[in-house]
Amino acid sequence: MDFLLVVAQIFGSPFLDATKSAKQDKTLLWMMIIGGTLFSAFGLTLYYLAQHS
User: pLDDT higher for 29 or 49?
Assistant: First the structure.
């Protein structure tokens, strides 16, 4: 859970700022959401593997 908090602190503020500025550009917003989801899944997978290796 600490890992998730760190990720949220690192990416949370820039992500919120970007969503505010990108409200008129839905394509960019969706790309960010999908990219962020994939990045999170990848990071969590690496974290899980590191914990259980």
Answer: 49
Q: How far apart are CA 4 and CA 2, in angstroms?
A: 5
pLDDT above 90 for 41: yes
pTM of the complete model: 0.45
Residue 7: how many other CB atoms lie within 10 Å: 16
Quick count: other Cβ atoms within 10 Å of Cβ 43? Answer: 13
Contacts of 35 (CB under 8 A, 6+ apart): none
More confident residue, 19 or 27: 27
Rounded (10°) CA dihedral 19, 25, 30, 31: -100
Domain ranges of the chain: 23-53
